[in-house]
Amino acid sequence: MKFLPIHGLLALASLSVACLLPEERKNDGVRQVTRRQVGNGTPVGTGDRFRGGATAPRGLGTQSMTFSTLLNVNEIKSGLQGLVNAYGIETFETPYKTYEGARIIGAKVGGSGGNCTDAYRVFFNGNIHARERGSADNVLYFISDLLYADKNNIGLTYGSKTYTSAQVKTALSAGIVFIPLSNPDGVDYDQRTNSCWRKNRKPAGSAVGIDLNRNFDFLWDFTTTFAPNVQSTVGSTRPSSETYHGTSPFSEPETRSIKWVMDTYSKVRWFIDLHSFAGDVLHSWGSDENQSKYSYMNFMNSSYDSVRGILTDTPGSGRGYGEYTPTKESEVNVGAARRMGSAMSTAGGRSYTVMQSSALYPTSGASDDYAYSRHFADPSLNLIHAYTVEFGFGNTAASCPFYPSVSQFNANIKATNAGFMEFLLAAVEYGLGDKSTC
Ligand SMILES: [Zn+2]
User: Which residues of 209-238 are buried (b: 16+ CB within 10 A; e: fewer)?
Assistant: First the structure.
């Protein structure tokens, strides 16, 4: 296996964008609107290509073609219904309605099936950030490919990455829960307005929207839990900011829905939150550099609040802080990330870099950190190896760089889907936790 080259972390941080544009990152999440570009990248589909679920989606791993339009919000729903009709998979709605009254819908595939809540060990979440176009498509098409390949006893091909029929069945055996579209209000708005919209659509004072990926219960109150000089990059308390973290952890129905999946499918062991665009596979932690020496030096220890998030200090030296991760867990976190990154690079499109999340920039309230933190905060909860995958390219020809061109959109599907496949195989090999069935 070919491993990606190791670069200096600071050099990487300056090259990568990852969900935030450079001006948003520097200036408390404020975006300057530029109107130089006029195109919007791949058009959003009109109508319903799945005809209310009469047709099931198929991805790019089981057929050779090019998608010329993105799925619209209704098509994500009808595509899911198509999978229900074609393969008998089971869907769920989380108990929380969005501000605009939408339901957050997911489904379960593989595992031991039926109503067994213990059979699902891998959770894919799509499009928590609205403008990151193609995220929902990537998730839905991948599951569609898995189901089609399984039913027809064939393998999968993504660029020069191929998987056998036996590997498809192994991957499905992990049991998967997925939410293709976790921010339906935001995506609907972004698709209607081409406004490069990132957040949800709940009014917040005189502004609109909460950054859902700063709203999870992990060091959420960053004005207390992070060093003063890093706080402006960690999140924002200003409702007009792209990184506004909301009024309390899990104040938003969208983030509560993701927590609900982890609570309901309590044996979930592996989690991916799918973002764009940086070409990164990010593993835990996102709060500070990792360390495995001092178990007391962790996110629950308020005596480190004033120094958390400073990446240049040395943990254990003076007031230096690093986030604790046990060596064995860390090796698995990194190992699966490397496999995923390597597969994504091989599938074509672009090369992917594997690194710790905080190396991009320290964050608070992010979904991956919350998922991995659960078993530290409450030892009765399952360990979840959690990742942020930043697929794709910045499209300099579009009004919003998060809107991919048609060739980028198709390359992104192949890359993420190869990454997902490799991730499932890695999950099975590293372990799914206890094997209890029901
Ligand atoms: Zn994002």
Answer: bbbbbbbbbbbbbbeebbbeebbbbbbbeb
Residue range 4-47, pLDDT digits in tens: 444 334 334 334 567 998 888 876 777 776 655 679 999 999 99
Measured between alpha carbons, how far is 152 from 408 in angstroms, rounded to an integer?
29
In the DSSP assignment, the letter for residue 251 is -
**What pLDDT, in 10s, does the model give residues 290-304?**
999 999 999 999 999
Mean predicted confidence (pLDDT) in 433-438: 63
Q: Which two tokens stand for residue 210?
A: 């909460």
Task: Walk me through the domains of the chain, giving residue ranges and CATH numbers.
Answer: 9-430 (3.40.630.10)
Residues 367 and 316: beta-carbon distance below 8 Å: no
Q: How many other CB atoms are there within 10 angstroms of residue 345's CB atom?
A: 23
Nearest to 168, CA basis, from 189, 153, 183? 153
List, in order, residues 6 or more apart from 73 with CB less than 8 Å away.
181, 184, 187, 188, 191
**Ligand 1 centre and the CA of 206: distance in Å?**
24
Ligand 1 center from residue 131 Cα (angstroms): 8
Give kind and range of the element (H or E) at residue 204. strand 203-204
**SS3 helix, strand, coil % of the chain, rounded to 5?**
35, 15, 50
Q: How far apart are CA 400 and CA 416, in angstroms?
A: 21
C-alpha 150 to ligand 1 mean position (Å): 31
The mean pLDDT value for 335-351 works out to 96
Burial (CB < 10 A; 0-12, 13-18, 19+), residue 437, is exposed
Burial class (CB in 10 A: 0-12, 13-18, 19+), 329: middle
| Cα 128 to ligand 1 centre (Å) | 7
Please choose, from the candidates 71, 263, 272, the residue with its C-alpha nearest in 3D space to the C-alpha of residue 178: 272
pLDDT score of 1 more than 70? no
Residue 342 CB neighbours (<10 A): 22
How much is the pLDDT for 137?
99
Q: CA 211, CA 371: separation in Å to the nearest integer?
A: 17
Return the SS3 of 165.
helix
Residue 73 confidence (pLDDT): 98
**Active site amino acids:** 390
Looking at every residue in the chain, the average pLDDT score rounds to 93
